[in-house]
């Protein structure tokens, strides 16, 4: 989508459609009121007749309005307040985008009716919402079907105010970079596991670094990982024919002396459970078990596109988790890169096994902070559903920054405790720890396990098991939490 900002004089602008935001129970906003006047009250009449109340997401078309260049007006309900909350705004913009896509419109114009204070947030969310509504999944190299009707290609924001215009331009730049990162994360998530293998993730990450002077990418193979002593990570890939990869991307946007943020993303490209095999129903959804990795790769791309003045390291441990004669068995004991030993009591608790070695590996970058992102526990879906990612951290300041970034980006997380009282659930008679903590507080004990590999670090863990993909009719990756992560990094600048 092409986004731009133009001056006012709406009635004389050439566009296929002008979107008229309507707030429930309020008089028409200035720009809309002037259109109403030119159209000899056509807009107000629609409202007075009860065809549109202004509820969030409500739409009405008005064709061939008098006195106006545009062939259509799209009246769009924003809900009850002039500064709509994120939920209402997303609902309204999604409805408008869908209506425009199902019409003959190639272009649309949106007069700015938001107060300047919230303009950056609102316009960025609009850009992100329009882009995500336009996302479509297709296999790589497949031919795009020819469109049946004109495609919506151009959205212009209209304002006569310089300050507003600059705010919107900045919001468009950020919004596009974030939206592209989200789309990349969704595409990687949606791709089936026979295509999106550990090697595929490595190749996609390399693409981001191509021709970039300030990005260096390295991919470790199994032999190199074995030499390092990554016994926990490698125990997961034993059962698979696809070799595991450890993908490391370094983005340098600031002075060398500035300690980097390290992002670590769980990249299990298919999680069958291994010998502790999962039940068959909905097992296909375990293709999404690399959505943490996808979010890290999407974030890396957005940071590159915005050329943020920070140092960032993205680490993706990537593997399948499959059963076979060579697979790890319940009761096997492995030695992690940190030297701590682990009794693998359930091969389906594999995410923490690959993450713990990646967390230890992250230490070599002397990071300012480490954030890992993982579809780690079904328990997190029970606790928080899909609306918030679980957040666990050994550092209050980092945790609060992430909570705040989640609010700002409308990609929220919610903190759960990481108290020492939970740690004994990981006790083992045969190793330093077991890899499961029993039926209680599964999200917390998983984080407790990870915390043992980040003890000297400012570290946070995002459990995105509920947030990363939608189930049912809407089945597909969400691209979360790319927005949250990019926001957090923007806030550091
Ligand atoms: N990838 C799953 C977590 C998961 C399950 C995410 C369902 C989304 C939906 C993870 O590897 C896993 O299997 N976790 C186990 C841990 C248990 C064995 C301690 C789980 O949550 O059941
Ligand atoms: Mn599992
Ligand atoms: Zn998993």
The CATH topology of the largest domain is given as Aminopeptidase
CATH superfamily of the largest domain: Zn peptidases
SSE-based structural type:
alpha/beta
SS strand fraction? 15-25%
- Radius of gyration (Å): 25 Å
Per DSSP, the total helix count is 14
Number of strands: 20
Poorly predicted sequence stretches spanning 5 or more consecutive residues: none
**What is the CATH architecture term of the largest domain?**
3-Layer(aba) Sandwich
The figure for the number of domains is: 2
Can you describe what's shown?
The chain has 493 residues and is α/β, with parallel strands linked by helices. It has 2 domains: 159 residues, Leucine Aminopeptidase, subunit E, domain 1, CATH 3.40.220.10; 310 residues, Zn peptidases (Aminopeptidase). The protein has 14 helices and 20 strands. Strands 7, 8, 9, 10, 11, 14, 15, 16 and 18 form a 9-stranded mixed beta sheet that branches. It has a 3-stranded parallel beta sheet with strand order 1-6-5, covered by helices on one side. The chain has a 3-stranded mixed beta sheet with strand order 2-4-3, with helices on one face. Helix 3 packs across helix 4. The longest helix has 29 residues. The protein is elongated, with a radius of gyration of 25 Å. The two termini are 27 Å apart. The site of manganese (II) ion has 4 residues, from loops.
Question: Which descriptors apply to this entry?
Answer:
binds zinc ion; Leucine Aminopeptidase, subunit E, domain 1; binds manganese (II) ion; 35% helix; binds ligand BES; 2 domains; 3-stranded parallel beta sheet; 493 residues; 9-stranded mixed beta sheet; alpha/beta; 21% strand; Aminopeptidase
